[in-house]
Design brief:
Blueprint: H1 2-12, H2 32-42, H3 45-53, H4 59-67, H5 72-111, H6 117-123, H7 125-146, H8 150-167, H9 174-177, H10 180-191, H11 195-210, H12 216-235, H13 237-240, H14 246-266, H15 280-288, H16 292-304, H17 316-321
């Protein structure tokens, strides 16, 4: 143990480090109320991912309908294929709203005085694990969404058809399920390359602006501490050996990338600046040491969904690492 501490002190210097038990953390009595609330949301996350993975779209039916505008049967076939898909897309969107509320509850718990964010994460590991699970879900959802252009094509067809019917004074039953206002909000959500991540970024930014008496550092330190802890667990053999599953390594990497992106959106100068409390070189190095197939999506998330990567203050070395 003494040798481990020497290694950690030498390599990590000022970055927080402790083992965060992503596999077995259980809530204490103090965490239980918030933990139960978040668990109720997270219990639906796997079914959401399975639903999204199985999403095939109505591309052929839509093409047939567009190419044969006078064929009523083909119009009906396309419409009947798209409607259930739009109901499914609404369910994903509504889940993002539940996730947004869940994240704000977690941030409230993990940033409140008198403890520092590092003390919160170390003491309230079950809540830290739930925060990690939200980020893990978010990156998986967005990876699947980015690989599925059918989602936006289906939704665009739905909106065009609804508009056409409105011009003809026709009301369709599905409008009771997805009315114009809901369709507008869903449209903005799915227009994002990474809609769930955007939801979390907005929720975190909103949390900071709403809690004016809470220093912004409480929130950004919570995020940077989580990134540091994930990096240390990934690069320290003694910590890695405590994971019982290879899946936990991937989980840890997704969480690290998720909190970096949130930090970059919330912190005034972002994650890539020299004054950032995140060791970006170390985090990117850890990712680059993994098999390329497993981390390409995560590296792309850092390349394309962060806010400050292309700022002048970002070192050329960090940019080169992400090329």
């Amino acid at each position: 143990m003494g040798n481990l501490l020497k290694v950690l002190t030498r390599e990590i210097e000022n970055y927080p480090h402790f083992f965060l038990d992503f596999e077995n953390a259980q809530p204490t009595d103090g965490e239980r109320e918030v933990w139960n609330q978040i668990s109720a949301v997270l219990q639906d996350s796997e079914s959401m991912l399975a639903d999204l993975q199985a999403y095939k779209g109505a591309g052929q039916e839509i093409r047939d309908a567009i190419q044969n505008p006078n064929d009523i049967q083909l119009q009906e076939k396309a419409w009947n294929s798209v409607c259930p898909l739009v109901v499914r897309l609404k369910r994903f969107y509504e889940f993002s709203l539940r996730l947004e509320k869940a994240l704000q509850s977690l941030l409230e718990s993990l940033t409140c005085p008198p403890y520092t964010p590092t003390q919160h994460l170390e003491r309230e590991q079950a809540l830290a694990k739930e925060f990690a699970e939200i980020l893990h879900f978010t990156l998986r959802f967005d990876e699947l969404k980015m690989r599925n252009p059918a989602i936006q094509n289906d939704f665009s067809y739905y909106r065009r058809t609804i508009s056409r019917n409105r011009i003809n004074n026709m009301h369709l039953d599905i409008e009771n399920e997805v009315n114009n206002e809901m369709a507008n909000r869903m449209s903005l959500f799915y227009a994002e390359a990474t809609p769930m991540l955007k939801t979390l970024s907005n929720a975190t930014t909103h949390f900071v602006s709403e809690n004016k008496t809470l220093p912004i550092e409480n929130t950004t330190d919570c995020l940077s501490t989580m990134a540091s802890v994930c990096k240390v667990m990934l690069e320290t053999p003694e910590y890695r050996s405590r994971f019982t599953s290879e899946e936990t390594l991937m989980f840890c990497m997704r969480v690290m990338v998720g909190v970096i992106i949130l930090y970059d959106h919330v912190h005034p100068v972002g994650a890539f600046s020299k004054t950032s409390k995140i060791d970006m070189k170390g985090c990117i190095k850890v990712l680059k040491e993994q098999p390329p197939d497993s981390v390409e999506g995560l590296l792309n998330a850092l390349r394309f969904t962060t806010k400050h990567l292309n700022d002048e203050s970002t070192s050329k070395q960090i940019r080169a690492m992400l090329l």
